[in-house]
Amino acid sequence: MEVKIEPSWKAALAAEFEKDYFADLSAKVKAAYLSKVVYPAPKNVFSAFTLCPFDQVKVVILGQDPYHGPSQAHGLSFSVPDGVRTPPSLQNIYKEIKADLGIEVPASGNLERWAKQGVLLLNATLTVEAGNAGSHQGLGWELFTDAVIKTISDQKECVVFLLWGSYARSKAALIDTSRHLILEAPHPSPLSAHRGFLGCKHFSKTNTYLKNHQLSPIEW
Questions:
Q1: What tens digit of pLDDT does each residue of 35-77 get?
Q2: What does the alpha-carbon distance between residue 5 and residue 11 come to, in Å, rounded to a whole number?
Q3: What is the largest CA-CA distance in the chain?
Q4: What residues contact residue 101 under an 8 Å CB cut-off, 6+ apart?
Q5: Which of 71, 92, 148, 184 is the most exposed place for a label (fewest CB within 10 A)?
């Protein structure tokens, strides 16, 4: 099957694209785009991979679903395009970065600048029906993104995985902790951030680990 994804990812995930579940997933997602309003726009479904090629991945931040409101989702977990109001979870992420590193809160919720530095902003499900959170869970995206996580774990060294919330933390089993660093915390949502996300210092811990392994830190 021909999949339009950044070349280094296409090579790393070649076997996945040939599996029956992926053909089934592709057919279901294509049908959904033809019959309903689905986010993000088709050109942005694989944006996380486009902006952060496989050989450049240093950090993985795992989300669950794309935003399901208009103009929000653009293919990067937790991120919104310029000019869109910063969502509550990202406001808390910015709040923690300021407390941890003293970096002022940016006006924009666009995290493309992180992706271009080697942060893979990966949602477990890459599409969603407008106004219907979780509507594309169970179509097969999770099989694909689990394979992405495992491929990074198996083929790379010294990647930091930031797993926030119970769903993301369940993916720790896919990651080889002898080769990589996992940092876990509650989800940054306003419902749970006060339970340990705020104060987790994941951003300074990430940069310390990267520097200790002769990798350039992220400019959060």
A1: 999 999 999 999 999 999 999 999 999 999 999 999 999 999 9
A2: 10
A3: 50
A4: 203, 204, 220
A5: 71
Query: Residue for token digits 């280094």?
Result: 8
Grouping H, G, I as helix, E, B as strand and the rest as coil, residue 165 is: coil
pLDDT digits (tens, 9 = 90+) for 178-197: 999 999 999 999 999 999 99
- CB-based burial label for 219 (10 Å; 0-12, 13-18, 19+): exposed
* DSSP conformational letter for 87: P
Closest to 89 (Cα-Cα) out of 8, 198, 211, 9: 198
Q: Taking a C-beta distance cutoff of 8 angstroms, is the pair 58, 218 a contact?
A: yes
Residue 173 near residue 194 (C-beta atoms within 8 A):
no
Cα–Cα distance between 62 and 120 in angstroms, integer?
8
Reduce the DSSP state of residue 72 to 3 states and report it: coil
Catalytic residue among 65, 100, 146, 176: 65
137, 128 contact by CB (below 8 A): no
Alpha-carbon span 182 to 152, nearest angstrom: 13
Q: Tell me the one-letter amino acid at 36.
A: K
Sign of CA dihedral 81, 137, 6, 219: positive
String of b and e for 8-47 (b: at least 16 CB within 10 Å)? Answer: ebbebbeebbeeeebeebbeebeebeeeeebbbeeebbbb
DSSP character at residue 160: E
pLDDT digits (tens, 9 = 90+) for 106-115: 999 999 999 9
